[in-house]
Design brief:
Chain A is an alpha/beta fold. Chain A has 15 helices and eight strands. A six-stranded parallel β-sheet of chain A has the order 1-7-8-4-3-2, sandwiched between helices. In chain A, strands 5-6 form a two-stranded antiparallel ribbon. By secondary structure, chain B is α/β, with parallel strands linked by helices. Chain B folds into two domains: 2-184, 3-Layer(aba) Sandwich (Rossmann fold), CATH 3.40.50; 197-324, Rossmann fold, CATH 3.40.50.920. The chains are: A alpha/beta, B alpha/beta. The structure holds thiamine diphosphate. Thiamine diphosphate is lined by residues 91, 130-132, 159-163, 190, 192-194, 259 of chain A. Chain B: It is an enzyme of class 1 (oxidoreductase).
């Protein structure tokens, strides 16, 4: 019988669960970088917890929490340059924020603002994807365009373990490798696709090993080790930028919360399992231990930073609430460059109703 | 000006747009060296090289999905789906991703993509090569749907489609690729999307059609004239945007309507046109609206396809029924 041990994949790890690692390897990271990394992750956790709470209070719509995946998202996105592209799914809020998306825009999105999907002109962030795996092809095409134009942008596609079962994922890997385009497939294997565990999603032992069949490099990295993620991603980005083609990264991580705010994870996984990850493998914990060891972080700094993050969230939320949410009349403007006669008629009808006039 | 077939006109449109605009690229299965299974892209690889013309891996979703990324990052891809029956493989990328990109991003991103595909019956193809699936896409706001019926229109409409900022599905009736020659200007020209063509003016009955069925309808209208029935024939050319004004104007004049299309009847685009006419011109009608279409079965095997497609006998019967009122 075929033995998957013939496809060995060691997991890249720099920091273990207790915040220890090879001192020499850790020396490559400056104090400033470590603090920036941690601050982003900590802020992301605060944001996630607040959004979850706000959903429960009915202040925002359905939301897909990412707590537990901060190292994978922030570690990977900080390895990018500002002009690089990211193609997120609904779970990559942290990555979007760290790549520059204003928090207010996230609130517009989760509150269902008409313009909620519009990312700012100067940011290369694609709208959040709902169809599992569809964005893998968009990222590949975008990277292909960069290569044809001789531009140095790299495109990064974020998706989950479930997405690797979709045809689009495989078509994207194949196209990317055939054309050697600068795209990075970044899989956050958080071990569940809603309720389905990864071993029921795929029979391969790792997702990273799928890269082999497409003729590209695949790397398995400890997704809760922000430094290992950063280092792996940096190498992938540099090699893609140098014209060495695509890469698949599997970041092994865990979603601590529910799939979305309408999901009950106790139906498909034990509370102990989640608790174990929360206690033992939390990506924030191990980085904070390192920071403390280097004398870069204290409880006071933590409290001040969390308070500041909370203030920022409140301000962004208030700004979003104060903004007009747009109206039904506006949605017609974004279907075609120029609306057809029939569409214009419907828009006029909607406008008349909005103004409270009778429709003749 | 020279006489050209539809396939030559299509080829010329792509070549001239590629010459005019460096951002225009062509991709699909066998479109490069082979020049396309119908030779639509013949010579493009030789002229523009392998950085503008791509023989892609055999994956329809991949072709459309990567085209979206290419379009977003500065190109104007022309993607070929080898036969329209294979478009189901790319349904999400075309109907949900390309179509909705402008909407999802509230105008931040547009998708200037043309998807060309041969379709239509009467050519004895294997299964799932001939199906007319245009109605599926009229249900996807954000897509434009263009269906030329002759060489002149094909060139002008394709050039407009390539220059358009929105994704366009450009459906080419394969039966007409080489069926006729007609005068087609050598220089580039545009035919605006959403403007129907009145093929023949008439007083007694309006026959609305598009794509592969148009030449047949036009020919039969001439025969009808000799039998004393003066039909007005409208070639829609585009289903989205739709030229509703030309339809209503004609219906108000004739009071009788027949719709002819190759696609299956139920939920075909003919049903939409009938509904629009009933909303806008019901009381000018002196007879029920008649549809002559493919039957509600999967596209059949070659031995019976001529009886399945809208044909002369079925169209004449429909017109006679209309004229009895
Ligand atoms: C094409 C498609 N099928 C099904 C769904 C419903 N759905 C939403 S999320 C999800 C699970 C995705 O799991 P994974 O790819 O591992 O990403 P994660 O949610 O864990 O980040 C499913 C089945 C969908 N959105 N799109």
């Amino acid at each position: 019988m075929f033995d998957q041990n013939q496809l060995p994949f060691d997991m890249v790890q720099l920091l273990d669960e207790n915040g220890n690692g090879d001192e020499e390897a850790l020396q490559q990271f400056s104090d400033e970088f470590l603090v920036t990394l941690y601050k982003w992750m900590r802020k992301a956790r605060v944001i996630d917890e607040r959004l979850l709470k706000m959903q429960r209070q009915g202040r925002i719509g359905t939301y897909a929490p990412f707590s537990g995946q901060e190292a994978a998202q922030i570690g990977s996105v900080l390895a990018l340059e500002k002009e690089d592209w990211i193609f997120p799914s609904y779970r990559e809020i942290a990555a979007c924020l760290a790549h520059g998306l204003p928090l207010t825009q996230i609130f517009h999105y989760v509150r269902g603002h008409v313009l909620g999907g519009r990312t700012p002109e100067h940011l290369n962030i694609f709208p959040i994807q709902i169809i599992i795996g569809a964005q893998t092809l968009h990222a590949t095409g975008c990277a292909w365009a960069a290569k044809l134009k001789g531009e140095k942008q790299v495109s990064v596609c974020y998706f989950g373990d479930g997405a690797t079962s979709e045809g689009d994922f495989h078509e994207a890997m194949n196209f990317a490798s055939v054309y050697q385009v600068p795209v990075i497939f970044f899989c956050q294997n958080n071990q569940y696709a809603i309720s389905v565990p990864v071993h029921k999603q795929t029979a391969s032992w790792t997702i990273a090993q799928k890269a082999i069949a497409y003729g590209m490099k695949g790397v398995l990295v400890d997704g809760n080790d922000a430094l290992a993620v950063y280092k792996t991603m940096k190498e992938a980005v540099d090699s893609a930028r140098n014209g060495e083609g695509p890469m698949l990264i599997e970041a092994l991580t865990y979603r601590l919360g529910p799939h979305t705010t309408s999901d009950d994870p106790t139906k498909y996984r034990s509370a102990e399992e989640a608790e174990q990850w929360r206690r033992k493998k939390d990506p924030l914990h191990r980085l904070r231990v390192l920071l403390e060891k280097r004398g870069l972080w204290t409880e006071e700094k933590e409290e001040a930073w969390v308070a500041q993050a909370n203030d920022e969230i409140t301000a962004a939320y208030e700004e979003a609430v104060a903004a007009e949410t747009g109206s039904i009349v506006d949605v017609f403007d974004y279907v075609y460059g120029k609306p057809s006669k029939l569409l214009q008629e419907q828009q006029q009808e909607a406008a008349r109703r909005k103004q409270g006039k009778e429709v003749k | 000006m020279a006489e050209k077939t539809m396939i030559q006109a299509i080829n010329e449109a792509m070549r001239q747009e590629m010459e005019r605009d460096e951002r225009v690229i062509v991709l699909g299965e066998d479109v490069g060296k082979n020049g396309g299974v119908f030779r639509a892209t013949d010579g493009l690889l030789e002229q523009f090289g392998d950085r503008r013309v791509f023989d892609t891996p055999l994956a329809e979703s991949g072709i459309i999905g990567t085209s979206i990324g290419l379009a977003v990052n500065g190109f104007r891809p022309i993607a070929e789906i080898q036969f329209l029956g294979f478009v189901y493989q790319a349904m999400d990328q075309l109907a949900a991703q390309a179509a909705r990109l402008r909407f999802r991003s509230a105008g931040r991103f547009t998708c200037p993509l043309v998807v060309r595909s041969p379709y239509g019956g009467g050519v004895r193809t294997p299964e799932l090569h001939s199906d007319a699936l245009e109605a599926l896409f009229t249900h996807s706001p954000g897509l434009k749907i263009v269906m030329p019926s002759n060489a002149y229109d094909a060139k002008g409409l394709l050039i407009s489609a390539i220059r358009d900022e929105d994704p366009v599905l450009f459906l080419e009736p394969m039966k007409l690729y080489r069926a006729l020659r007609m005068e087609v200007p050598d220089e580039p020209y545009e035919i605006p999307l959403g403007k129907a063509r009145v093929v023949k003016e008439g007083e007694d009955v309006t026959i609305i059609s598009w794509g592969a069925a148009v030449p047949l309808v036009a020919k039969l209208a001439v025969e009808m004239k000799s039998k004393g029935i003066d039909a007005e024939v409208i070639d829609l050319r585009c289903l989205q945007p739709l030229d509703i004004d030309t339809i209503v104007e004609s219906v108000e004049k004739t009071g009788r309507v027949m719709i002819v299309h190759e696609a299956v009847k139920t939920n075909g685009f003919g049903a939409e046109i009938a509904a629009l006419i009933s909303e806008r011109a019901l009381f000018t009608l002196s007879a029920p609206i008649v549809r002559v279409t493919g039957y509600d079965t999967p596209y059949p095997v070659p031995s019976v396809e001529d009886d399945w497609l809208p044909n002369a006998a079925r169209i004449f019967e429909g017109v006679q029924m209309l004229m009895r009122y």
